[in-house]
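Thread amino acids onto this structure.
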């Protein structure tokens, strides 16, 4: 049996620490080998920590996401950021699935009875709807924020499927918005907006307690439905380019500086004014590097209170725009 070093307490502490941490020996086994009590071993280990001979580090997989959350909140002044851990190598489809699962779970914490939830249909809210966790509510309502019809298909089935999943999950009636996503003429929209049945839905949107939506982006890794589903014509894309559009929320467009005034296409959109998103409690759910530009613009425009996004997208946002 080897004999322990006896020069001084420091050498004894190092000797014990090596056996305990490197060789994974128990204090009882070390005590038997050194022919001392377990309490002596415990005191030597404590001494080793106090003298800085042992450096214990915990590798928390959530540590980096938390730092990103703090950076986003401090830089952009929103109430809360949720960064969902996701390895970059997994790819954007997997990032979206992880973000959608998290958002579906978090929604159960914030959406309760006697509340109205406004939902902007799209690829991201569709993913969230597939991961909802049943939660019965009382006297709550679900309302669609923007129309879904287009010149190629009605689009209504896609949007209504999303809304009905939320409706069934929370035991809440769904109020669908059966109008085109974009009208051909602003005058047609203005006339329809005066109809009593439409007016009722618009009033319900304004009464929403909570908004759930994403940022639409052209050429996203997981394409935004409004850009891939035939909702925009060639002339619309030319207008978006002229206006330096960064993205959309509920098919209402905004520029790189977050502004959304005097954009002709918005006058034909069925989505609500983005002032609603500045004023109400909105949860924006984003996934994908191509959405970083639009997300930054939306943050500049104050178009959300809370943000849920994947870790690679959060890292890109902070690296590119965190300094100002």
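Threaded sequence (324 positions):
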């Amino acid at each position: 049996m080897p004999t322990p070093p006896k020069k001084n307490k420091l050498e004894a502490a190092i000797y014990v620490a090596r056996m305990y941490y490197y060789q994974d020996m128990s204090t009882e086994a070390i005590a038997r080998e050194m022919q001392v009590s377990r309490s002596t071993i415990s005191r030597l280990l404590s001494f080793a920590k106090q003298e800085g001979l042992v450096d214990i580090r915990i590798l928390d997989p959530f540590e980096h996401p938390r730092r990103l959350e703090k950076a986003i909140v401090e830089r952009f002044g929103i109430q809360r950021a949720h960064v969902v851990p996701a390895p970059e190598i997994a790819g954007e489809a997997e990032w979206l699935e992880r973000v959608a699962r998290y958002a579906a779970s978090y929604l159960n914490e914030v959406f309760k009875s006697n509340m109205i939830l406004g939902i902007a249909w799209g690829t991201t809210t569709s993913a969230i709807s597939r991961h909802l966790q049943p939660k019965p509510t009382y006297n709550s309502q679900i309302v669609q924020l923007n129309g879904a019809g287009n010149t190629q298909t009605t689009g209504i089935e896609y949007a209504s499927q999303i809304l009905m999943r939320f409706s069934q999950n929370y035991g809440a009636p769904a109020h669908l918005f059966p109008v085109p996503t974009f009208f051909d003429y602003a005058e047609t929209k203005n006339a329809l907006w005066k109809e009593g049945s439409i007016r009722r839905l618009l009033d319900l949107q304004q009464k929403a307690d909570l908004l759930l939506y994403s940022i639409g982006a052209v050429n996203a890794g997981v394409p935004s439905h409004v850009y891939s589903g035939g909702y925009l014509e060639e002339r619309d894309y030319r207008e978006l380019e002229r206006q330096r559009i960064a993205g959309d929320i509920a098919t209402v467009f905004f520029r790189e500086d977050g502004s959304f005034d005097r954009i002709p296409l918005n006058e034909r959109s069925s989505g609500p004014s983005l002032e609603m998103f500045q004023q109400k409690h909105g949860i924006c759910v984003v996934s994908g590097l191509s959405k970083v530009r639009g997300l930054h613009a939306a943050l500049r425009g104050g178009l959300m209170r809370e943000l849920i996004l994947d870790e690679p997208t959060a890292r890109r946002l902070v690296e590119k725009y965190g300094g100002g």
